[in-house]
Amino acid sequence: MGTPVLNVHIEKAGYEEDKSTVENIHFSVNAGEMVGLIGPNGAGKSTTIKALLGMLKQFKGQVIFGEREEVQRIKKEESSAHGRGQYAYIPEHPVFYEELTLWEHLEMVARLNQFEGQAFIERATWLVDEFKLTKAMYEKPDSFSKGMQQKLMICIALLIQPKLYIVDEPFIGLDPIAMRRLLQLFEEEKKRGAGILLCTHVLDTAEKICDRFLLLQEGSLLAQGSLRDIRSHAHLQEGSLMDCFYELIEGGDRR
Ligand SMILES: Nc1ncnc2c1ncn2[C@@H]1O[C@H](COP(=O)(O)OP(=O)(O)OP(=O)(O)O)[C@@H](O)[C@H]1O
Questions:
Q1: Which superfamily is assigned to 1-86+162-219 in CATH?
Q2: What are phi and psi of 227, to 5 degrees?
Q3: ipTM value of the model?
C-alpha cells in the first residue's frame, strides 16, 4: 500500500451547526491511487468534499493531508488555509475571476505556488494545447462554453502537479477527446505518485479507472473497497460497478 496523501475522519459535518448532513465517514487516499466517490443524488458526495476542504459550518473530525498532521480540526475556524500546496480541487461548477484571461489564471495560480519562469511557460503552453484551448489563451473565461471552462479548471490543477487531486464530477460536459486526454493525464499523475479522489456518476468509467470505491448513501458510507470488495458486499461476484451500485442502493430498499 502507498503512502497516504489524504486521511479523512468525519464524525459529522453539515451546513448548519445543529444538523449533520454526513456522518461517520472514514477513508484514506494513497499515493498513486485513484479512489472513486460514488452514490445517488443527494447522498452527500459534494458535502463530503466540502467537509474535507473546510468549507462547512459544522465539522467534527480530522482531516490529514500528506503524511504529517497538517490539518487537525474540530471547528471550522481552525481549518482555514491548512494543507495549501498539497492538493488541487477541481469543482463541479467552474469558478473564475471575471477580469482575468485564461493565461492570467494560469499565471496567478503558478505564482501562488512559486512555479515561475521557463518551466511554467512550457508546462502551461503544453497543457493549453493538449486541451485545445490555445486560441482562447488571451480571452476571458466568462465567454467560454461550459466544457472550455471545465478544461481550464483541469489545466489549472494539472499545472501545479499537487500530491492530491480532489475532483468533483469532471466528465459531464467534456468532449470525448478531452475526456480521453484527461484520463491519460490522470494515469500519468498517478504514476508520478499523486493520489486522486474522484466524485462521479459515470460508473462505467469509474469502474475502469478507479482502484477503490467509496459508496455513500444518505450521508454515510454504505461500502468501500476494491471492485472485488464491492462485489462481495453486493453478493454479485461477476457484477459491474453499476450492477453492484443498483443492488446495494435499490436492493436495500426492496429488502
Ligand atoms: N448549500 C447547502 N445547504 C444546505 N443543504 C445542502 C446544501 N447543499 C447540499 N445540501 C443537502 O445536503 C445533502 C447532500 O447533498 P450533496 O450535494 O452532498 O449530494 P451529492 O451526493 O453530491 O448529490 P449529487 O449527486 O446530486 O450531486 C442533500 O440533502 C442536499 O439537499
A1: P-loop containing nucleotide triphosphate hydrolases (3.40.50.300)
A2: -55, -40
A3: 0.98
